[in-house]
Write a structure and sequence with these properties.
Chain lengths: 669, 321
């Protein structure tokens, strides 16, 4: 528990006792005032109120009290448009492109081409055998079987070539992400100053929606595989950097001293002690990087990444749910296989299961080569078309049946289309209109108050500046539209998440049932969630919200139930002995004790929901996500870039407003 | 410290050695092209179903008659021009008129070559369903549209009448038109053409009135008969004004002869495929036939193309070089 939140914490959990004293004994006025100034939450509000009383009348008199004042906006579309034109006109002549960006782009394309050629040369049998043997070597028989089945399913669905393309792109992107992330992490792990400089940047990058990364790379590299790989690297490198730095910094001081006393040089210390000791974190970093890279590689289909994501994108744009599913299933399978394999590699390091090293690897390589050669000899390199199972037709039939029967007019409960309409009409519209009707300085004050109460003055300042930046960019109303979608979806997510987490925290069996479901849900790329919701809710803001809720739910359930379970058994026992009902125990003991976890759950919900609400622009979600899609679709990069910047600011603001105080964590690390 | 400098110098040296030649980004094609010596062609396919029909038939014939391997990539209209100029895509088969892009890439940079006409004439306009036009014939003049605004209101149109638009990527002046003609309407983007069609079908099922941006040729007319609303006549003066500043447009959309464009280098090096694509030319009826097989009968693009190819050898034989 952090130092700064402790007093506020008691203030929250204390009420049952405090009012009893306050009601019976009259407290003198000044004493109450003093108590007020002693309470940090009240003190913060007081400071804010004073600041507001001074600043608001001035601001309101100068710029009015409606939406963000026009006088305070900066129109960037002119300069950005000119920059875009300049880049297009000079892309084939300026030295910056010919000798710098051109090499980056060329290198990436050559690398992807090489990997893709190797994958095709191995043939389907070779790739499947190689991946299965690799999984067996690293993670054991069960994962190997999963791998084999997964690759077979990819082939059966007629998605072999797109899967190989995504795989080729992934291999290059992950290798680059791990290299970049490890280098950054190494620098941050060895130097305190780099660590302090890098940490807030990495923290922020992890809170930003993937969509925001697309525009800048398109501006420079155009559409294609190279920008897709670059966007993926930018998105996926931060977790590797963070975990590398963490791993290096958490090395046991005693061990280090011992190594040092043996006369090891700095490099020897790093290679023989610090890196091996950080193995667990490093592998966890690789795991997270792979998962984020897959998620991004799929989203990057919007900028021409090809592969599975492109198939989903093409299918979504024609609301062909069957085809989208056929391309979505391989994505999920890839995610599961990669996650299990790398996770097992990380766990194996602990149990010391690293026997028979070289011969086993030679066997893996040899067997793969043999299978590949056999495939080549039988000239069966391409997946045999006759084996394909067409699921698009049946799935579309099922979807049509659902649309006919579940869409509307179910007796009693209405249909999914009715729910979508109600959610839009009764929740989203009033919330959006309410937010947009808020005077601009009111919104700033509200954000400042929330961020300061939960966090420190620093987070509050960042949040307010981020919101103001949105106004300055001229995206006030659109951003509030997005914000209304985020808030509504977060509210639903939290209600559902707590409702699931409470029983899960109390019963071991519920927890056991839930765990594999959560595991799978958390590894799925965001893009995949768009497919079923379009089938169920049509197009608009409601399906985007549904996808966001489903995407964020697992994290909320997991964090909340963990927090509730950690509640001190002694405290629970004493509450029970005092005759508290289980509801009372929950409200008055478990929830207050789990406050940090609950705040973290809120924070995660906000970050995850935002990321999906933004890509909801692809299914009619409107607002900022739509502007990015519009910018990409019309080649109007100015609109897209400004919207992307607004998304960054919104993400920053939401993250800071909900960020449980870093004060304690900072002292601790 | 010294080691750092050595590393930095080494890196710079490496850059200097490898960097003696220029790497022209605009000449780098897709890493998936021409793998394993296969001759491959990359087609840009746009999201509307007519364009899918073109690509489906071209793909089928290239693969089965000429022995190419064809990749299709979904890229939106304007970025497709950029991708085409860079050679990441070899051809666009249906373009609805992008003067800015044409000037930049065809006239100035000469990286894109015109590929002739598709043979289909396209027309964009505003449409109302026939059942509504029959009941209220005067809705077909734009001057009377405001009278019907209250009947065309929806939850998303904010108290005004709804003018339904499709994908953000389509050529549209609707926002400018609504403003300049003083119409009490709100342009609502469905987000994609598929969403727009779903919406139109739902309206038609309940026989509700609607006003939508739509275009010909389009197979949906066979299912939901629609009538065009007359907008102020398209003149060349209006067109010039609109080219200079799109927000001043106040007249109807032109009738466009849809065109094909090829990457300039591809026209030289593309061999048979380039000649085939340049000769590709069919009619509105042909395109609609394939489009309807894809969109309505839910055939895969490949299957739809196969059927059409089987029935119309007289049309496609002319294209094969």
């Amino acid at each position: 528990m952090s130092i700064t939140t402790t007093p506020a914490d008691t203030a929250v959990s204390a009420p049952p006792a405090a009012p009893a004293g306050g009601d019976t004994a009259p407290v003198r006025q000044d004493e109450r005032l003093r108590a007020l100034t002693r309470n940090p939450a009240a003190r913060k509000l007081l400071v804010l109120a004073v600041a507001a009383a001074v600043l608001v009348p001035v601001a309101a008199a100068t710029w009015g009290s409606g939406s963000w004042p026009h006088a305070l906006t900066v129109d960037l579309s002119g300069p950005l448009g000119r920059a875009n034109d300049w880049i297009i006109d000079n892309r084939d002549s300026h030295w910056l492109f010919l000798y710098f960006f051109g090499y980056i782009s060329g290198g990436i394309i050559a690398a992807v081409h090489a990997v893709y050629t190797v994958l095709l040369a191995l043939g389907w049998a070779g790739v499947a055998a190689g991946a299965t043997l690799l999984a067996w070597r690293v993670a054991g028989v069960r994962v190997a079987v999963t791998t084999l089945v997964s690759f077979a399913v990819c082939g059966l669905l007629g998605m072999w070539v797109p899967t190989m393309r995504t795989l080729a792109l992934m291999v290059v992107a992950v290798a680059a992400s791990v290299a970049v992330g490890a280098l950054l992490g190494l620098a941050a792990g060895l130097s305190d100053r780099t660590f302090r400089a890098l940490r807030p940047v990495l923290d922020t990058m992890q809170a930003l929606p993937a969509f925001a990364y697309l525009m800048p790379v398109v501006l420079i590299f155009g559409i294609g595989v190279a920008p897709a790989v670059l966007a993926t690297v930018v998105y996926a490198a931060p977790p590797m950097a963070r975990l590398t730095a963490l791993g290096l910094r958490s090395t046991d001081k005693g061990v280090l001293e011992a190594v040092e006393s043996l006369g090891a040089t700095g490099r020897q210390r790093l290679l023989t002690a610090r890196l091996p000791l950080a193995r667990r974190e490093l592998l966890l970093g690789v795991n997270q990087t792979i998962m984020m890279a897959l998620s991004m590689a799929v989203i990057a289909s919007v900028i021409g990444a090809d592969g599975l994501g492109d198939r989903v994108y093409q299918a979504l744009s024609t609301v062909d749910v069957g085809s989208a599913l056929a391309a979505g299933i391989p994505i999920v399978l890839l995610a599961v296989v990669m996650d299990r394999t790398t996770a097992a590699a990380g766990a194996a390091g602990d149990s010391g299961r690293r026997t028979g090293g070289r011969t086993a690897w030679l066997f893996v390589a040899g067997a793969t080569a043999a299978v590949a050669l056999a495939g080549r000899a039988l000239s069966a390199l391409d997946w045999p078309g006759g084996w394909n199972v067409a699921i698009a037709g049946p799935v579309n039939d099922a979807k049509d049946w659902m649309v006919d029967h579940l869409y509307s007019g179910l007796p009693g409960v209405g249909g999914t289309a009715d729910w979508a309409a109600h959610y839009t009409g009764w929740v989203l519209d009033p919330l959006r209109d309410g937010l947009q009707a808020l005077p601009w300085w009111g919104a700033l004050l509200l954000v400042a108050a929330l961020a300061w109460l939960i966090g420190t003055w620093r987070t509050a300042l960042t949040a307010v500046l981020a919101l103001a930046a949105i106004g300055v960019l001229g995206r006030w109303d659109t951003s509030l539209d997005t914000l209304s979608q985020v808030l509504a979806a977060v509210a639903v997510t939290l209600v559902l998440g707590f409702a699931i987490a409470v029983p899960a925290a109390r019963s071991a069996r519920a927890e056991r049932l839930l765990r594999p479901v959560l595991d799978v849900c958390q590894t799925m790329p965001q893009f995949v969630y768009l497919i079923p919701v379009v089938a169920l809710f049509g197009v608009g803001r409601a399906p985007a919200a549904a996808a966001a809720i489903v995407y964020a739910l697992p994290a909320v359930v997991r964090i909340t139930s963990q927090g509730l379970r950690q509640a001190d058994p002694a405290a629970l026992e004493s509450a029970r002995s005092l005759g508290a009902t289980s509801g009372q125990q929950l409200r008055q003991v478990q929830f207050p004790l789990a406050r940090p976890e609950l705040l973290l759950a809120v924070n995660q919900a906000v970050v995850l929901v935002l990321s999906v609400v933004i890509i909801g622009g692809l299914v009619g979600g409107g607002a900022l996500g739509y502007e990015v899609v519009f910018g990409l679709a019309q080649g109007d990069l100015a609109t897209g870039l400004v919207a992307g910047a607004a998304i960054v600011c919104l993400g920053l603001m939401l993250d800071r407003v909900t960020q449980p105080t870093k004060g304690g964590a900072r002292d601790g690390s | 410290m010294a080691r750092k400098w050595i590393v930095a110098a080494g890196a710079l040296g490496l850059l200097a050695v490898t960097g003696c030649g220029a790497a022209d980004m605009t000449k780098q094609s897709s890493p998936y092209a021409n793998v394993r010596g296969a001759k491959s062609v990359t087609l840009s396919v746009q999201s509307w179903v007519g364009a899918r029909a073109n690509a489906a038939v071209a793909t089928y014939l290239l693969e089965h008659e000429l022995g190419y391997r064809v990749d299709t990539v979904q890229v939106d209209e304007v970025p497709a021009w950029d991708a085409l100029s860079q050679g990441r895509v070899d051809a666009i088969l249906e373009d609805w008129g992008h003067q800015d892009q044409e000037k930049r890439y065809v006239e100035d940079k000469k990286t894109i070559a015109p590929g002739g006409e598709l043979g289909v004439t396209g027309h964009i306009g505003w449409f109302v369903p026939k059942y509504f036009a029959d009941a209220h014939p005067d809705v077909l003049d734009w001057r009377n549209l405001n009278k019907y605004a209250s009947q065309l209101r929806t939850p998303e149109s904010g108290g005004k009448g709804q003018l339904l638009d499709g994908s953000p990527s389509y050529v549209t002046n609707d926002k400018a038109l609504v403003k300049n003609l003083g119409l009490d309407y709100q342009v609502v983007f469905a987000g994609s053409e598929a969403a727009q069609i779903t919406q139109i079908k739902q309206f038609a099922k309940d026989r509700k009135p609607f006003l939508t941006y739509w275009y010909e040729p389009q197979w949906l007319f066979n299912e939901v008969p629609m009538v065009e609303v007359k907008l102020p006549e398209h003149t060349s003066a209006c067109e010039e004004k609109g080219t200079a500043d799109p927000s001043t447009v106040d007249c109807a959309y032109p009738t466009t002869s849809l065109k094909k464009y090829l990457n300039a280098e591809f026209t030289h090096k593309g061999g048979k495929a380039a000649r085939f694509l340049a000769d590709f030319n069919w009619t509105k009826r042909d395109q609609n036939e394939v489009a309807q097989l894809i969109a309505e009968d839910k055939l895969s693009a490949d299957e739809a193309a196969k059927r059409w190819v089987k029935e119309h050898p007289d049309v496609w034989k002319r294209w094969i070089p």
